[in-house]
Write a structure and sequence with these properties.
The complex is a heterodimer. Chain A is mainly alpha-helical. In chain A, 62% of the residues lie in helices and 1% in strands. Chain B contains eight helices and two strands. The chains are: A mainly alpha, B mainly alpha.
């Protein structure tokens, strides 16, 4: 374990307080997703959170025979993030398997909170994406709280990828499907629940930064890298590559960069390390979107960069005060 | 069979299990265990090469100059692998196609060369044969168990007998699932081994 050099300050902040703040910051996104997608989304959220907490309780109590650690709220955060990363139509037992993998494999196998290398919610999501491609790529267009007839449809990123493979150009596809930026900013695009509304995620992000729970550098460097790199590609060939604003507002980019790349345990400890970490995530995400076979690469990018965190912590460790 | 000979035979199953304890031959272990049958076939193929090469190497070891002993052992092992390859191609062409490249790769399998170096070159013919059988069956057992676990989780079947309709957790048929299954089986194996 790495401990920052002297001087250390005492503070009343505990893991539980920080994690509770993250839950509060996620509330706008949760409320908006339930309003847009209706009770089905509430069911996915409930199953995900309850099974994460239950799995953590059972493992700490009966496998490790220690005091249970569910009081630190971290399992709840993982549960909410996992649910926000899944399509609303995911069956409950698939959600449960995701929670089991997230907590059981990605977190408790490594020794619990603070020792996991990879973000648990993302490991759960990617496990499900590879294991159940049919459930995990069946998206729904939001129909509102009381909407009955669900319409299934592809995400904007999926539509563009599919269309490009069939030889259409980006502006054609955008016009054909009527995508507008205000729509992406406020809602009503197909995708997993947490991707529904960009504004709700940004509100939560500003709350976290204002409460000093997270520093904004990782998020800003991801968004900056995606904007800058996609700008170069877009200016070079606007028929083949999507524009920067489209890339910033679609897919899991905002949710991932605000809430999952900034996870304390799996991100670098210093600002410099964090910026490099963010540049890596932004670049890999964009390369997968532009050239990969999956339409979206945010979760893969974060997991890949998670594995470089020990190295980044080693390169950019904090300078000691005084003479060495 | 004397107790010492029995010990040479049984150590390959638990105390020196090549997969779960020595972690040898991981490349074929991870790559070929997509189903129980595939895992077992790979294990049996390795067993065949292991026993025969152990016997021949223990017989010729005193005659081989020390400087060239590795090339000589490799030639002996490669001979038996070639025999195996032709035999499989002739009698089990489907399995030969499934295992593909991993059959010729038995030549560089570290279990085979490891047993030649560590055991067969220093012991008699009977002991070396027993050692090859023990380690070989240990390897076969591990690969079958790993293949069975991956097949049950990944395709919902056991030894080709399907008990659910549709797919299982597809990840277990792919490479990440191999690492996951091997890791958790190792935990289980060590827990059982510690208890005894």
């Amino acid at each position: 374990m790495l401990v920052s050099p002297n001087p250390h300050l005492h503070s009343k902040t505990t893991t539980a307080v920080l994690m509770r703040d993250v839950v509060i910051a996620l509330l706008p996104a949760v409320i908006v997703s339930v309003v847009f997608y209706g009770w089905k989304e509430l069911l996915v959220l409930a199953v995900s959170v309850l099974s994460c907490v239950l799995v953590e309780y059972l493992i700490t109590r009966y496998c490790l025979k220690k005091a249970s650690t569910i009081g630190d709220w971290s399992a709840i955060v993982t549960g909410i993030l996992l649910a926000l990363n899944l399509p609303t139509t995911t069956p409950w037992w698939v959600v449960f398997i995701g929670a089991l993998v997230a907590i059981g494999v990605a977190k408790m196998t490594f020794g619990g909170l603070g020792q996991n290398v990879f973000n648990p919610a993302l490991v759960g999501r990617v496990f499900l994406l590879i294991s159940f491609p049919t459930y995990m790529t069946h998206w729904e267009i939001p129909q509102g709280l009381f909407g009955v007839d669900a319409i299934s449809g592809a995400t904007p990123l999926g539509v563009i990828k599919e269309g490009l493979m069939q030889g259409a150009s980006v502006p054609e596809l955008m016009a054909q499907h009527g995508y507008s930026y205000s729509q992406m900013l406020f809602a009503n695009i197909g995708g997993s629940a947490g991707e529904a509304c960009a504004i709700a995620i940004l509100v939560g992000f500003i709350y976290l930064v204002a409460r000093k729970v997270i520093k904004p550098w990782i998020t800003l460097s991801i968004l900056g890298t995606v904007a800058a790199v996609s700008c170069i590609f877009w200016l070079a060939n606007p028929a083949q590559f999507t524009d920067p604003l489209f890339n910033l507002l679609t897919g899991g980019l905002l949710l991932g960069s605000c809430f999952m790349a900034t996870d304390y345990v799996t991100s670098p400890m210093t600002t410099k390390g964090g910026i490099i970490f963010g540049i890596g995530i932004g670049f890999i995400t964009l390369m997968i979107r532009y050239f990969g076979s999956y339409p979206e690469g945010m979760s893969f990018a974060i997991l890949i960069m998670n594995s470089t965190v020990p190295l980044l912590n080693n390169w950019f460790h904090q300078k000691k005060y005084g003479r060495a | 069979m004397s107790k010492r000979k029995l010990n040479i035979f049984t150590k390959g199953f638990f105390k020196e299990n090549p997969t779960f304890v020595l972690l040898l031959g991981l490349c074929p272990t991870l790559a070929t265990t997509t189903s129980a049958i595939n895992g077992m076939s790979m294990g049996l193929a390795t067993l065949f090469v292991l026993v025969l090469s152990n016997i021949v190497i223990s017989a010729i070891a005193p005659l081989v100059p020390d400087k060239v002993h590795i090339p000589v052992y490799i030639v002996v092992i490669a001979t038996f692998v070639t025999i195996l390859q032709f035999a499989m191609q002739a009698y089990t062409p489907d399995m030969y196609k499934t295992l593909g490249l991993f059959i010729p790769l038995i030549v560089v399998n570290c279990i085979v060369l490891g047993r030649a170096e560590a055991f067969a070159s220093k012991n008699g013919i009977v002991d070396s044969a027993l050692d090859g059988l023990g380690i070989g069956f240990g390897f076969t057992m591990s690969l079958t168990v790993l293949g069975l676990v991956r097949e049950i989780l990944g395709s919902g079947s056991a030894f080709g007998w399907k008990f659910i309709s549709g797919d299982g957790l597809l990840v277990f048929v792919m490479a990440p699932g191999a690492f996951l299954a091997l890791g958790y089986l190792m935990v289980l194996f060590n827990k059982i081994a510690k208890k005894n």
